[in-house]
Amino acid sequence: MDRDRILLTPGPLTTTLRTKLAMLKDWGSWDADFIAVTTGLRQSLLDIVHGHDTHVLVPLQGSGTFSVEAAVATLVPKTGHVLVPDNGAYCKRAGKLSQMMGRKATMLPCPEEAPISVAAVEAALQADASITHVILIHCETGTGVENPLAEVAALCERHGKGLIVDAMSSFAALPIDARRVRFDALVAASGKCLEGVPGMGFVFIRKAVLDGCAGNSQSLAMDLHDQHVYMDKTGQWRFTPPTHVVVALAEAVKQFVEQGGQSARLARYADNCRTLVDGMAAMGFRPLLKPEVQAPIIVTFHAPAHPDYDFKRFYAGAKQRGFILYPGKLTQIETFRVGCIGAIGRNEMAQAVQAVADTLKEMGIADGTPAL
Ligand SMILES: *Cc1c(COP(=O)(O)O)cnc(C)c1O
Question: How far is Cα 72 from Cα 246, in angstroms, rounded to an integer?
Fold first, then answer.
């Protein structure tokens, strides 16, 4: 098969030919042409959240987690204390990286199939005055559930706490408006809903807290304050930038704007998600989440109850038909995940559903009905 397989994964994901072609050129990192690309990209990312008055945009090399780690290192003082409402794998990762950097971290366990409870966050803040920051995962990609960003932001503002948002899998698809929702840092990356290629993250940092971040980071490479100061002064990245990733992202953002921006992207992903869920339901598959808490980013499905079901074989069958699925990330129940994001639309989702149907048939499984 000479066509690229469709990635139904939450990053890396399927990109357009135009985005791929943008990478066929070498750039000098100190050169004015590349500096102009970086500067333009930073502006266009600020446009997306309407953040020009309130925030700066600091890019960072590496996968998304590098930027989450950098945001915590830069924003939270060494004596700080983070609260992490926990309804999934990415929440646990944020807690772990905070702890490993020597920040005190308190996890607030919440059920995985529902958004985190705002009332529970408030009670935790009231119970422990030493908490300085809340880390919120906007869309918990482990299950696909959307967490209540605006409500948690308002709560943090009311209690005078900092807020760090991991908006990795939601940014550019779900609405985020910095004029209405107050956050100290919001983290996203190149290879998710902007449909760039993986390799860089970026963090919006609130101008009002930026100066106070000097000297917080225990890491040289992860210091976003330093990265910002250097970039503002020189236009350059402090250390070797992922040049091809940066130009590909700039090209991807141009297409994002041409296609109608965040609302158009949300509409396309919501349509992808509906096409997927309806098609799968017709085969008996059941999503883990109730529709009202499901973000149109990634859908977790229960595994079929049939004794011949095996994820490895199921995956191989779908792959042979041109679609890359994603394993589940729940510890208790057997599941698999299907992404709705990337440069794909209704046709690709319908073809994916057909590929799943053909794979089931090949495996001798009558339908996808789960056990419970
Ligand atoms: C993708 C993702 C990340 C970053 O993961 P990397 O593998 O480091 O790119 C972090 N948080 C969430 C919610 C994500 O979806």
Answer: 23
DSSP secondary structure code for residue 116 in this structure: P
Which of 90, 146, 149 is the best mutation target for the ligand 1 pocket, counting ligand atoms within 8 Å of the beta carbon and taking the most?
90
CA 191 to ligand 1: nearest atom: 9
Residues with CB under 6 A from ligand 1: 10-11, 63-65, 68, 90, 137, 141, 166, 168-169, 189
CATH number of 17-258: 3.40.640.10
Structure tokens at 7: 């990635």
pLDDT in tens, 274-326: 999 999 999 999 999 999 999 999 999 999 999 999 999 999 999 999 999 99
Do the domains 6-11+261-363 and 17-258 sit in the same CATH topology, yes or no?
no
Residues 156, 222: Cα–Cα separation, whole Å: 25
The closest-lying atom of ligand 1 relative to the alpha carbon of residue 66 is: 8
Architecture of domain 6-11+261-363 in CATH? Alpha-Beta Complex (3.90)
Residue 1 has pLDDT above 70, yes or no: no
Out of 61, 69, 136, 169, mutate this one to test ligand 1's pocket (max ligand atoms within 8 Å of CB): namely 169
Q: Percent of the chain at pLDDT above 70?
A: 99
Neighbouring C-alpha atoms within 13 Å toward the C-beta of 263: 2
Q: pTM for this one?
A: 0.97
Domain coordinates in residue numbering, the chain = 6-11+261-363, 17-258
Contact 304, 320 (CB under 8 A): no
